[in-house]
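Minutes, project check-in
Item: structure for the 332-residue chain
Input as provided by the requester:
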Amino acid sequence: MGVSPQETEEVPAKRAKLDDDYHAQPIKTKEAQVEPVIKKMSEYKITELLGQGEDGKTVFTKGIISGLEGPAVVLFETNSIDLEKVKMFLSEQSAIKLTMNNDIFNIFQLDPPTGTNSIKTTVIHPATPKLINKFTMKPSYFVTETAEMYERITRPYILNHLEDHKWVYNILEGKAEQNRFVTQVDDEKEGFVLVADLKWDMTTMENLYCLAIVQRRDLYSIRDLDQTHLPMLRKLQDTCLTAIKEKFGVPRSLLRVYFHYQPAYYHLHIHFAHIRYQAGAPVIGKSVALNDVVQNITLSNEYYKNATMVYYIKDGHALSTELDKHNVIVRE
């Protein structure tokens, strides 16, 4: 997930009272001044606790923002958090400051009135049903997808659900997250942008997490890759690993580089994560190493066109619903 034009000042580690008491202040970008979608946390009312992150550091909530139509999803992230603590954040004395904005995604720095550490607060508004489902705790199931199943079920689903990934295009066009850019190659066929993911504070190197987003808009997942894409993949890998070493001092031997299948969104992107970053650890049924992809399509041009792929998918996901129509998922 991307978020925001980033011509912003660095967020201070310690709490600082905002100019206008505890109201969020606008951020200025090269394009325009962005007004916060929410000015104080008391404007947000929780209607549902969606769940909690596996690391216990994040709480996912659904609710409404006073004066705005449609639901919002708000994520509260700290070093240690429990569900009950969330209620303490919704106070008139909670200081919030908008630090990033990109389309419907808004990142705030929240300082609760208790004097505890700041809480990273992500506000998504309006929240689509797909995003609400993403943060709702539900069971997941493994799917064994043959090449025939992909062509008959998955690919038509992808083509019928190509969303306007405005936040992705904002990044590619240099309209958002500019101060999170690590490196970029501008080329119609082999171009890409490497940005620091919003999960990373760009300070703690052991939590390094970056995304390389390809410039082409006709590549949706590893299923679309063949030998014609090898120059792009090799250039991307070498350029990004070199840039990360030069900018952050982290050598390639400490980095995981991988795709997700199924991906969170269907615009080809590659993950770069520090080997000690637990949230970036390889997951069976989800992660596919870039080196493995390069080797496989080097050996066979149509490897991913013909391969059987095993992945897991959350109940309620739109693709899961489509698979159920074909009795693909075995739940018993």
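Outcome recorded: The chain has a mean pLDDT of 84.
No further action items on this chain.
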